[in-house]
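ugh ok fine here u go
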Amino acid sequence: MNPKTLRGLALVFVAMAIAAAMAGLAGQGSYRMAWRWVPGGVPVLWGCVLLAFFVQWVAWVPSYLMRTERLFDLTGSVTFVALL
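structure:
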């Protein structure tokens, strides 16, 4: 991989780590969502963050293949409204 690609991947992982840390800190003492594989569940905010990241990554694939931002922008707006 070239240095530009490695830098981009590093920035993606740093952004995801920052979002996870912020969700972890903000979710302390909040309502918990029951997940079978996590004893005691996880904060609801974590579930919202995971859902938002998952939807955005799934929307990125066709947007990248079609070389357009229209689908990605629409998905971002829908995700924002859905998580309010």
